Structure formats: C-alpha cells, structure tokens
From TrEMBL:
ATP-binding recorded as keyword: no
Subcellular location: Cell membrane
Name of the protein described by the UniProt record: Uncharacterized membrane protein YbhN (UPF0104 family)
Organism field: Curtobacterium salicis
Membrane-crossing segments per the record: 12-32, 44-68, 126-146, 158-181, 201-226, 238-258, 270-288
A Pfam family it matches: LPG_synthase_TM
Topology relative to the membrane: Multi-pass membrane protein
Keywords tagged on the record: Cell membrane, Membrane, Transmembrane, Transmembrane helix
Amino acid sequence: MSPTTKKVLRRVVPIAFYLLLALFLFLYIRGVDWAQLADIRWNWWWVAVATVISLGFRYWGVGIWFFLLRRLGATGLQGSGVALTFVYAKSWMGRYIPGAATWIIGKVYFASKHGVSRARLGVSGLLEGALQIAATLALALVLLLIDPRTHNLDPWIIVLMIVAFVGCVVCLVPKVFVFLISTALRILRRPPLDADVAPSLGTVLGGAGLYVAGAVLSGAAYYFITLAVYPSLAPTDATFVIGAASMASAISMLAVFAPGGLGVREGVQALLLGLVMPVPIALVVVVVTRVWSLAVDGLFLLTAAVPTWFAHRRSGDEAGSTEVEPAPGH
C-alpha cells in the first residue's frame, strides 16, 4: 500500500466510522416507541443505581480488554490508559453499526495509533467477543434453567440456547480458536498469525471468569432498571431477570446483522420477562431498557472522553513551559 493511500485511509476511515455511527444511531432512536414512555412513573433512585452499575460494567470491560492484551504480550499500554479507555468507548459505540466487526475494527484502528500491535488488537477483539458471548450465555442458562417458569418455553428455544453456548465454548478452545483465525487469514491472503500471539488456556479461562462477573453486573443493572418501572417485581425474581437480560444480550451479540442487537434483544427480553410480569408491562420495560442502555453508552463515551481533554490540555501546558525564555535585551 502506497504512502498516499495510507494517508487517505487515515482521513477517510474515522470520517466513515462517525458518519455511519450517526446514521444508525438516528435510525435506532427513531425506532423507539416514545408513546409507551409517556405515562411511566419512574423510581429515579433505582434508575440511578442501575446507571451506576451499568457504567461500572462498561469500565469492567475496559479492564478485561487490558487483561487480554497484556496476556497476549501487547506493549505500549503503560501510560496510555486514558487514551485507550476512550478508544474502547468509541469502539463500543460501533456496536450500533450493523456487523459485529465494527466494534473490533474500531479498536484495532484507533488503538494502533497509540503503538499497540494490530495483530494483538485483532486477536484480543475476537477473543473478547467470543468470551463475552460464552460467559453471558453460561450465566443465562444457569439462572434460567433452574427456574421452573422457563420450562413453559418451547423446548427448541432451550435447545438453541444450549447449542449456541456449546458452539462458543468449542471456538474458545485455544487450538480451535487459532485454527479459525489462521483459516480466515489464509482466505483473506494475510500473513499468518505469529505463535506468540495465540492465547493460552489460562488466558481464555481468566477472561471467561472476568466476563461472568461482568455479566452479573450487567444483569443486576437490568434488574434495577426493571424495578424502576415495575416496583411490584419480587426480589426473588432478581435471578430470573438477570438471566433474561443475559440471554437477550448474548443472542443480540450473535445477531451481527442487527445494529446494537436491535429487535433481537427486545424480542428475547419480551418473551422472557412476560413470564414474570404482565406482557404489556414487559413491552414497556423493553422500550425503557433500550433507551436507557443507549443513554448509558453515551455517558460512558462522555466520561471516557473528558479525561483525554484534560490530558491534552496538560500536555499543551507542559510543552509551553519548556519553551526557553528569551534573554533580557533580545
């Protein structure tokens, strides 16, 4: 690739990313049935609790990303925490663009500018996605299958859940994972994967454990936002709601054709929540969680961006202070 082409791509790729993000965010917001939110009586304390937990889950994801990068031998992370957190937040918003690859490609493109290896960024991104789906599905299956109300679902739905989980686990076996990536690289006629970039079993198990904890955090946030809308929800239903939210999240990640899992997440949520509350209320909760989740993503992007502004200002001040003062009379 010529230097001119690289220069053009450096300008075009970020512009295309932001334009596509703006377009699909507009379509996402336009698809909300705002009339269903008009008569809701909110418990704002539960909304606040849910928001804090959900924001914490997103920063937990940043920590997992750093963990995987370090385990894969990435360098250039020291002193780049603020910048890379902002990279993660920007790329996280890429989930609203159809195609799961956008989230991964965004991290590879933006983080490589901070000196992180593209190969390790790509492998860590794929590993993140598979781990998140597998861990979230595992939690969902445990919490839902122990609840007798789930037995009212069509048995094929349960079978599909289990098949999806087993498929993710098989893909995460290090040798299988490396084989799949190597095959993709050969098809794309890209250089083969270096041996030192391949994840170990310890990396996979460590990442899986961290993502299970993250799924509990995320599910707890959905429980409290549901409680904010439907205060009659019993405390004993917490595990079911966490399981329902986890299942909806995992299935929406598998539906790479839908921006932000739009339609898929809501369908799974409505189906499962209808087992623990009146269906009309479940449909309202689905709309609320859709709007609230987007708002938390926006808050995540903002809280990740603000430290970078201060960092730029501080670096500018330091650069100015190092200028040599002219001698008197000159």
